[in-house]
Amino acid sequence: MKPRTPGDCGNGLPHNEPMTPPPALPAPLPTRKRRSFLRRGLIMQCFCIGIALVLWLFGARHQSLLINWVYATAIGTSSWLFIDGGRTLAMYMLRRWHADSRLAQAMWPGTALMMVVVVLGAAFGYSLGSAIGDAFSGRHMPRLLDNPPALITTFLCSAAATWYFYSTERLHHERAAAESARRLALENQLRLLESQLEPHMLFNTLANLRVLIGIDPPRAQAMLDRLIAFLRATFEASRERMHPLATEFERLSDYLQLMAVRMGPRLQFTLDLPAALREHPIPPLLLQPLVENAIKHGLEPKVAGGQVSVLASRQGERLRIEVRDTGVGLDPGGPATRGTQFGISQITERLRAVYGEAATFSLQPAGDAQGGTLARIELPGSATSPTA
Q: How many other C-beta atoms lie within 10 A of the C-beta of residue 118?
């Protein structure tokens, strides 16, 4: 007996274990912390410049603006570093002692503990910043307890900056959590849509194969071989969130060749994909329902058969994909419109999930002498998927 390789069900087809890969993870925690720290530091420098201007304009014009800026920056930056470091230390101890507490998960030690951190951080920051300013200017700043205005200003500014940082970080965290939840919901929605689409396509193909077995066994054998190769390639491609347009066209070629085994000369097809658009990302199996509907509801009811053409083109900044057939057309209530709602709803929902309102889909009569139906999809110039 031939041994099975990992990912093989024994018949050459992959099993269902891999499924869709997990959504892209956000930036690593140390990277996010570093960015957040740098952002707070930049905001703090702007805050210090504003304090220096206020002091210079309303009470310290006897000193140069440079001196006011040095003291404001030294005291403000030192206080911020002490407060931020104290908050980090408090969070470390809180997570170590109460890892499951709500505060530990929210990255905030609580108002009471944070007030203690602000008072101590502002006091140490004033002392260190004053020493730095004195070393630069050659002056002597009074000690904190001997300078009530500086005491009040330092504490108020430290508390205001801390509250601002807390509010912005909390807002940023809530937005990130909401975005993560939205992406997860879209991932689950797309998985559901794909799980519905693949069996639908497979059942239709097997039904066609069943008919062919009874009337032409050799062609049925050839069709079965094509089906196995097609399913192997399709299952591998469908586990990706997005894939190149060239891969989508390759799957369409496999499917059309599979259908050509059954329909013979009644089915002609052309695929037109410019080289510049080959790498454009689209959701897997997006075009499959359109081609399937074109054959089942357009060409099969027509005795002479016809042609299916798939064309991709660039329209300004947008990608346009057209699936055209020369079948019986969209006669209201006729065979061309029966049974097509599943494919149409799949395409509409997947486009909305991936692109929002940036993508459009239309299905209309071809409007020329050849007749038939024209399906058109327009996508933005670059994919805006939910795992970015």
A: 21
User: Minimal CA–CA distance to 311: which of 275, 368, 271?
Assistant: 271
Domains and CATH numbers, the chain: 29-180 (no CATH), 216-379 (3.30.565.10)
Rounded CA-CA distance 217/206 in Å is 14
Question: pTM here?
Answer: 0.49
Residue 160 has pLDDT above 50, yes or no: yes
110 bridge partner residues? none
Whether the Cβ atoms of residue 308 and residue 294 lie closer than 8 Å to each other: yes
pLDDT at 187: 59
Question: What residues contact 353, with CB distance under 8 A and at least 6 apart?
Answer: 186, 189, 190, 193, 386
Residue 155 has pLDDT above 70, yes or no: yes
Among residues 163, 160, 128, 162, the alpha carbon closest in space to that of 144 is found at 128
The whole-number pLDDT of residue 99 equals 57
Structure tokens that stand for 101 in this block = 């507490």
What distance in Å separates the CA atoms of residue 325 and residue 375, rounded to the nearest whole number? Answer: 9
Split at pLDDT 50, 70, 90, the class of 25 is: very low
